[in-house]
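Is this the right way to post structure tokens for a design question? Let me know if I should format differently. Anyway, here goes:
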């Protein structure tokens, strides 16, 4: 039971039923009140008409005992100012809701009459209404009574009470209420059932998505995709977003798998070489190649540092927000480089403030210069310039350049275009990948194009620090 009412279908059907129920109760109440008000108004009008007819007769001099009150449908009483019943409908057996409950009229005293029995009275303009009941012969019913005063008659001030039956009102209200009590529950059942069916049909694709996601989780097959409905609603967008997420997750997992495989492969070579040299040195100390062991150790250390930095970048590590003068950074880092095969020409003027991590930016510069040194023929050129709201760092060499079809591929991890070169002479293929990742996390870009004098030109664009003063 709890599971059934915990579903979206059940909650939607229950909510729709409750809303419709509240609306129906409100509408039904309003209809009944309007119907009762209208029928009560009609009963008041009928009672007013009867009371005014009798009052007019009294005002024109008709004696109370001479009135024609033989009307089985409308009980009438004529009461004087002392509360005595002077006239009443024939066969009136019981009455309530009027000025007196008496049903047997008493004759007016002779001394109450004037010499001029035909003196004219005055009918009041105001009519008062009340609810009551009466029994005429054997028939009892509820009535709406109108009370109308007649002044200055030969019998003093008289009050006429005339009733109009409420049977029509009661019958109409009872019929309407019965129809509502029967019709409303049926309508609520229809609304709940239709809502349940419509919601189930609308959510059927969601159940398909859920089932497929459960299957993907169980099988760990990220190549599978959830079904996409041929609609343009929220469910279809959910399916498309889910598939996009699965595609991104599959690519990330595949990228991680390749990364682990390539890293294992790259680590195997220096470790195996270092182990071989150490084993040879242990057996024959005179044959130990110390410089080769040191070189392999350094290479292993650099590769481990690259892998650690990539792992931090993949984990979403954000650079700091420190102010870094890129021009000063370039001058300082290049002044400390020794052992480069080719000279490095520096073109830096003034300052170029950016925001980020000084260590990561220095790493990018070192990777770009190392890459240029490996491919240059005679020299490398490094320049820093400010262009509008961006700072541009360029590193160019005069080597063979990068084919246009390979200019994006070289930024992939463990990619080296010169597969024939020895691994000892080149890097592991991580330098450019690290440089682009760092650039992206600093809000910048890293691209490659042909250098003006031949070779490759790598351009690092970073947002200028808006809070820094430029020189």
């Amino acid at each position: 039971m709890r599971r059934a009412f915990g579903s979206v279908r059940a909650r939607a059907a229950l909510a729709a039923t409750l809303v419709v129920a509240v609306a129906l109760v409100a509408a039904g109440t309003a209809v009944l009140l309007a119907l009762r008000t209208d029928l009560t108004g009609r009963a008041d009008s009928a009672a007013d008409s009867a009371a005014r007819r009798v009052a007019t007769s009294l005002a024109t001099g008709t004696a109370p005992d001479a009135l024609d009150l033989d009307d089985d449908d409308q009980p009438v009483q004529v009461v004087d100012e002392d509360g005595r019943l002077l006239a009443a409908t024939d066969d009136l057996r019981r009455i309530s809701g009027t000025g007196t409950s008496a049903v047997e009229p008493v004759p007016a005293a002779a001394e109450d009459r004037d010499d001029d029995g035909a003196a004219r009275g005055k009918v009041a303009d105001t009519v008062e209404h009340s609810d009551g009941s009466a029994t005429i012969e054997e028939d009892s019913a509820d009535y709406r009574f109108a009370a109308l005063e007649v002044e200055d008659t030969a019998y003093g001030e008289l009050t006429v009470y005339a009733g109009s039956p409420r049977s029509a009102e009661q019958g109409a209200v009872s019929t309407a209420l019965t129809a509502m009590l029967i019709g409303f529950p049926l309508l609520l059942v229809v609304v709940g059932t239709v809502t349940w069916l419509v919601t189930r049909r609308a959510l059927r694709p969601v159940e398909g998505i859920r089932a497929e996601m459960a299957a993907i989780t169980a099988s760990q097959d990220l190549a599978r995709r959830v079904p996409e409905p041929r609609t343009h609603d929220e469910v279809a967008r959910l399916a498309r977003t889910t598939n996009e997420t699965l595609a991104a997750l599959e690519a990330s997992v595949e990228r991680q798998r390749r990364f682990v495989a390539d890293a294992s492969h790259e680590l195997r070579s220096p470790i195996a070489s270092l182990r071989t040299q150490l084993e040879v040195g242990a057996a024959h100390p005179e044959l130990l190649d110390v410089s080769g062991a040191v070189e392999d150790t350094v290479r292993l250390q650099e590769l481990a540092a690259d892998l650690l930095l990539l792992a931090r970048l993949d984990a979403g590590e954000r650079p700091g927000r420190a102010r870094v003068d890129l021009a000063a950074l370039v001058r300082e880092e290049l002044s400390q480089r020794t052992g480069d095969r080719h000279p490095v020409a520096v073109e830096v003027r003034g300052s170029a403030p950016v925001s980020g991590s000084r260590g990561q930016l220095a790493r990018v510069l070192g990777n770009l210069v190392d890459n240029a040194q490996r491919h240059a023929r005679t020299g490398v050129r490094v320049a820093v310039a400010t262009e509008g709201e961006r700072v541009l760092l360029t590193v160019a060499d005069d080597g063979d350049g990068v084919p246009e079809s390979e200019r994006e591929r070289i930024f992939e991890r463990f990619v080296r275009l010169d597969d024939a070169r020895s691994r000892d002479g080149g890097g592991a293929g991580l330098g450019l990948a690290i440089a682009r990742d760092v650039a992206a996390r600093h809000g910048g870009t890293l691209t490659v194009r042909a250098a003006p004098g031949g070779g490759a030109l790598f351009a690092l664009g970073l947002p200028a620090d808006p809070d820094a003063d430029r020189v």
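Format looks fine. Someone answered above. Worth noting: The longest strand covers residues 122-136. The chain has three domains: 1-220, 234-309, 320-463.
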